[in-house]
Design brief:
Blueprint (H helix, E strand, L loop, with lengths): L2 H25 L13 H6 L17 E4 L2 E5 L15 E5 L2 E4 L5 H14 L8 H7 L14 H6 L16 H22 L22 H6 L55 H9 L5 E2 L2 E2 L69 E7 L20 E3 L17 E3 L5 E3 L8 E3 L76 E5 L15 E5 L7 E2 L3 E3 L21
Parallel strand pairs: 7-14
Antiparallel strand pairs: 1-4, 2-3, 4-15, 5-6, 7-12, 8-11, 9-10, 12-13
Length: 570
């Protein structure tokens, strides 16, 4: 071998060694060791400290898709033919989040009802109001000059409507469903991880009342569930801590590991209703109008274009959504221009938008989390805007323990329409509003109740310089009806209609709903349109879907930096 060949072989070997070393350094998990203390993840685990080095990122929850965040123009960008001027365009930044592909269906909601009926049997006097508070109002289909009685009897429970969106659900009920779904998703995750036994398959325990899985209770104290009954758990997460000398081996199948913490990244974030800005951003899906770092054109609907009919060769002329096409025309002429339904229709019957979401225009309108106010102006927060915050904290008793609601301490609230709902289910953590002391010297909030901040609170009235504690009655910017006084301890009140003249129905319990429905004209299909209804009311054209937060990076994709240099060949 001559010197030239030897030099080439040596150079190739050197490059290979350097490449392997660089790749190994690049693939090394930064959590395997700490440059600040020198403790490796093995050292931490051996000492009994948390050392999560196996987290691979968040996956989409069941039935949800990732909505990559970004900036967009929230509000009406078309002609305002209603002249209510409550959708003034405002630039907003939205964080990434997950959202249901389609509305919650009757079959999914029936699972919720069956679970509630089993765990809180209505024939038990302690739970009768809990189950009834979750049942949708099936009488929303009635009309004094229409024949819809069969829908009141069949729409919710008949299998013919199983995959249709659930209706007759109030904002309050939709919020309670989201909380319940959070617990069921995390319960299933813990079962799959070998930490929790299938509770309904365990003959030694009864899943009833306060004895059920609750995520907050589990994270607060795993042994607060089922009064400390350890048979609900399997082995738990494995630990690397060495067993001490003389310590006996745990019994086969017993809990020998540790419980899940937030830092493990196993439990799913809480499900909730999407905020108004999230819902509108997801519906508009301006990502398909993006050209580099600009948005080209305006979107009138959830799909691209300014018409409601399909332009493709195969389906040309078909409607792209389920909506009312004119006076007395809910479905079109038979055999042509038919949207397939006279009322609601099975979810996913129409193509999804650019984010993969179905029925964001048409079928049913949807509840969002926000309290309604006429205008979202430029003084509003431009990052993840939301109106409706009530900051809370876990209630601590005299012994310094977190209060868990039990079967004997359930508190109920009477809504304005007389319906009774539990403030918190048995077995859940009790939350209370933060105090002024908790917010003392903070620069981001001053109180717990922020629903009417800058639009209805004391600071936005002519008595802005007063303190609420100095006034006997708080002045109101909006003169909507005041909730009637409850009579006695039963939770009931005298039912009577409001006789005062009102200039508005806006209140702190008025919630926004978005999107058009099967009984709305084309105008309401625009995602920017916004309407409102009291949170305790339900209709036959409003449904809902859930959302949850995206943790960590905004997207699954790995983008190259915009400053990457391109090599040109000359």
């Amino acid at each position: 071998m001559n010197m030239k060949k030897l030099f080439n072989v040596t150079r190739i070997l050197f490059i290979a060694i350097v490449t392997v070393s660089l790749v190994s350094c690049h693939n090394r998990n930064p959590r395997d060791s700490s440059s600040l203390t020198g403790w490796s993840s093995k050292d931490k685990a051996a000492g009994g400290f948390s050392a999560n080095s196996s987290y691979k990122g968040q996956t989409a929850p069941p039935g949800m898709v990732l909505i990559e965040g970004g900036s967009f123009t929230m509000g009406h960008v078309q002609d305002d033919v209603m002249f209510d001027w409550n959708t003034t365009p405002v630039k907003q930044q939205v964080r990434s989040f997950y959202m249901d592909e389609a509305e919650v269906t009757n079959s999914e909601y029936l699972f919720y009802l069956e679970w509630m009926e089993k765990v809180f049997p209505p024939n038990d006097i302690n739970y009768k109001d809990i189950y009834l508070s979750a049942v949708p109002d099936t009488l929303v289909w009635r009309d004094v000059l229409g024949f819809n009685e069969l829908l009141t009897e069949n729409y919710l429970r008949h299998p013919a409507y199983a995959d249709y969106p659930v209706v007759g659900v109030s904002w309050v009920q939709a919020t309670q469903y989201c909380k319940w779904r959070s617990d069921r998703v995390n319960e299933k995750l813990l079962m799959e991880k070998g930490i929790l036994n299938p509770l309904f398959e365990n003959d030694s325990i009864a899943v009833k009342g306060q004895n059920h899985f609750d995520t907050d209770t589990y994270l607060t104290n795993p042994y607060a569930l089922f009064n400390g009954d350890s048979t609900i758990y399997r082995k738990g997460l494995p630990t690397k801590a060495k067993r001490k000398k003389g310590e006996s081996r745990p019994a086969k199948g017993s809990f020998s590991g540790r419980h899940v913490k937030v830092s493990d990244g196993i439990l799913a974030p809480k499900f909730r209703l999407p905020t108004e800005v999230e819902w509108e951003y997801a519906a508009k899906a301006v990502v398909e109008n993006r050209e580099y770092n600009n948005i080209r054109g305006r979107k009138k609907y959830a799909w691209n274009g300014k018409y409601t009919r399909n332009k493709t060769k195969r389906y040309k002329g078909d409607q792209l959504a389920n909506f009312k096409q004119g006076k007395g025309d809910y479905s079109g002429i038979p055999g042509w221009s038919n949207d397939g339904a006279d009322i609601t229709i099975q979810v996913k019957s129409y193509p999804p938008n650019a984010f993969g979401l179905y029925d964001m225009s048409g079928n049913v309108a949807e509840w969002v989390a926000d309290v309604y106010r006429p205008i979202i102006d430029n003084y509003a927060n431009d990052f993840n805007y939301f109106r409706g915050n009530i900051f809370t904290k876990k209630m601590i008793d005299a012994e310094g323990k977190v209060v868990i609601v039990d079967d004997s301490s359930v508190e109920y609230d009477t809504l304005d329409n007389g319906k009774i709902i539990p403030k918190a289910l048995p077995g859940s953590v009790k939350y209370i509003p933060i105090s002024k002391r908790d917010a003392y010297m903070r620069n981001n909030y001053e109180k717990a109740y922020n629903i009417d901040v800058r639009d209805g609170d004391l600071a936005s009235t002519k008595l802005y310089n007063k303190d609420e504690e100095e006034l006997e009655t708080k002045p109101r910017m909006y003169n909507s009806p005041v909730k009637p006084k409850v009579i006695g301890e039963s939770g009931f009140f005298k039912q009577e209609y409001d006789k005062d003249k009102r200039t508005t129905l806006i209140s702190n319990k008025t919630r926004v709903y978005k999107g058009g429905s099967w009984r709305d004209r084309e105008y309401w299909l625009d995602p920017a349109q916004r309407r409102y209804l009291p949170e305790y009311m339900a209709t036959n054209y409003i449904g809902f879907r859930c959302a949850t937060d995206r943790l960590g990076p905004m997207t699954y994709k790995r983008r190259k930096p915009t400053t990457t240099k391109i090599k040109y060949k000359y």
